[in-house]
Amino acid sequence: MVTSPEQDHDELVRQVTARAAQIQVRIANCTDRDVKILCVSKGHEINVKAAAFAAGFTDLGENYAQELLAGAAALGVAASGSVSSPRWHFIGGLQSNKVRSLAGIVSLWQSVDRLSLAREIASRAPGAQVLVQLDLAGISGRSGVAPSQAAELVRNCLDMGLDVRGLMGVGVPGPPEESRSGFRSLSALADELALPERSMGMSNDLEVAVSEGSTMVRVGSSLLGPRMSQNPDSAG
Fold first, then answer.
1. Which of 55, 107, 116, 146 has a 20 to 30 Å separation from 92 between CA atoms?
2. For residue 132, what are the CA distances in angstroms to 14, 36, 152, 156?
3. Domain region containing 163
4. What global pTM score does this model have?
5. What's the CATH code of the domain at 19?
6. What DSSP string describes 114-172?
7. Residue 232 domain-assigned?
């Protein structure tokens, strides 16, 4: 039996909605707080991103500039107060020279981890909302500022006029419980700096993250199914 594009879309929406309900149950088993699910659409076809948006995920997260630009070209960019198009989050390691192309498209820059990147965002998107990303693993090559240097970077971002909403972190590889201490320290630092947002936790470790105070979990494959390519070290 051949299905129409509309039928395929409706089935994708149904699948995403069903998986979202499962994620909500996992969160509810950990807390009665409101924890946002950021749908990480990176690595998925445009039709899957469209189904996620139709299923109610108005915020979509991407790791790569070109993929985010392609998604925004296909699905649009949310205007202020509008829900007719997605709000795009950039959640991956970002080269400063990519900021220009993303300014005006990204609603929340989640991976600000150095002064030069903050300066470029402040220049290209004055007053932009950002999260400062912490390195919770201490692994060479990973994005993130050392926790001991995070407060200074937050102050510098604020001095540039950026709207620092909170902190972001990626758990360590391995069993979820091994990420608990890092998530706990991120949450404590956010408290110390009076920052409301704590973006931490992904598909495999969201229970640990939520129990340690996460306000936003970044979930991709558990919502949208397998990606075209997998990178276990990515931010969502």
1. 55
2. 35, 18, 11, 11
3. 5-224
4. 0.91
5. 3.20.20.10
6. SHHHHHHHHHHSTT-EEEEEE-SS--TT---B-HHHHHHHHHHHHHTT-EEEEEEE-PP
7. no
Helix (H) or strand (E) holding 106: strand 106-112
- Is the residue at 235 inside a domain? no
In a domain, 165, yes or no: yes
Q: In total, how many domains does the chain have?
A: 1
Residue 139 lies in a domain: yes
Q: Which two tokens stand for residue 1?
A: 């039996």
Per-residue pLDDT of the chain (236 residues; tens, 9 = 90+): 334 566 698 999 999 999 999 999 999 999 999 999 999 999 999 999 999 999 999 999 999 999 999 999 999 998 766 678 999 999 999 999 999 999 999 999 999 999 999 999 999 999 999 999 999 987 777 889 999 999 999 999 999 999 999 999 999 989 999 999 999 999 999 999 999 999 999 999 999 999 999 999 999 989 998 876 544 445 66
